[in-house]
Amino acid sequence: MTEVATRAVTDRAAPPSAVPAPADDRRRILAVDVVRGVALLGMIAVHSLNDVDAAGQPSWSTTVFAGRAAAAFAVIAGITIAFLTGRRRVRFAGALPAAAALLTRALVIGVIGLALGYTDAATATVILPYYAVMFLVAIPLVFLPTWLVAFAGLAAAGGMPVLTHVMLARLAQPTHPNLTFGWLFAHPAASLSELSITGAYPALTWMAYVCAGIVIGRLNLARLRTAVALLATGTVFAVAAGVTAAHLSLRALEHIWPAQFASALTEYETRDVLTLGGDGTAPTSTWWWLAIATPHTGTPLDLLGTTGTAVALLGLMLLAARIARPAGLRRLVAVVLTPLGAAGGIALTVYTLHTLFMSSDFDEYTATTGFVVQLCGALLLGLGVRATIGKGPLEALVSALTAAARRWATRPARRLQTTTTTRSEASR
Description:
Helix content: 55-70%
Strand content: under 5%
Number of strands: 0
Number of domains: 1
Low-confidence stretches: 1-19
Number of helices: 17
Radius of gyration: 22 Å
Largest sheet: none
Order of helices and strands: HHHHHHHHHHHHHHHHH
């Protein structure tokens, strides 16, 4: 949920050589907003449309967006963190302001998410409290060099599914799909366990996405070579995950079904996980569950494939934003990207309205009609906000509080820097 003003501030803080030209900067911001917009509309499609078609097979919305939309949001969250911290490793002098900004953002997003927790969980599991934990966990990451952040992401992608498989039977299973203020205060340990490991969007596992986003956000996204590299790398990851999962699927099934007696799932629920996906984690009846790649199972192949899709989409949007000739193609691209980018720029506001609408009496439409109504509403609202006030109300709130926290934390940091400089000069 990155704001243009925040990006401008962090860009000015970067070294001159790292700051792209204004046109390049606009293209970079547009591409990130477009990916966020695509993820937003994909999430609306998953929540609004049917999971399966008339034949009982996964619907087009499930096939295209399930798992991928939420993952793209998480990768963009990592890019947001990189933008908030100047697109480079945070040094000691800027540690307090950076930590204060991320902490404040986490708290505000968490409060909004807990407030939305009172909506109907049957329509959608609110993701925002999980994002709040991800922002908190990311605070130490911003002080690491980029190569170490990448290593942490790989460790999360490969290690957390294994750790989750071992720990899941020892942890309480989620009983409250949408966390609320009351549930959090009454059951803090269970809530922390759900947000971190056992829930629908387990923050520790999803740090694989956030780390990928931080690494990408530190790159020079204004360069053509970066866009091509992202498209190629993301495509390789997505294809490799899909091919590997297809190769292992038959062998995995040979172990999964015989282990059904040891599973807490019924045969119908097991079939559901194998075709439509899970609720954040994979079953633990056999280690072969880690060889599947269905949505929201948190397996290494699921993480690799969905990360690849998000990275490839960003690379493609960066390339699309660079199209200048022929003029007709440039106008066509602008017609597509502009409303998507506008909706992506107010994603937090639109997501909140979408969650409230899905749980209200106003949602009396059929699945398809309801999706179209929300799709048009999100695009038109985004264009309207961009043409008038420029920033969504919730984005403005998050931006203002984050900026205030940064200013508050900058004062003692400046005093410390001044004191250190004075002592150093005195020692000379």
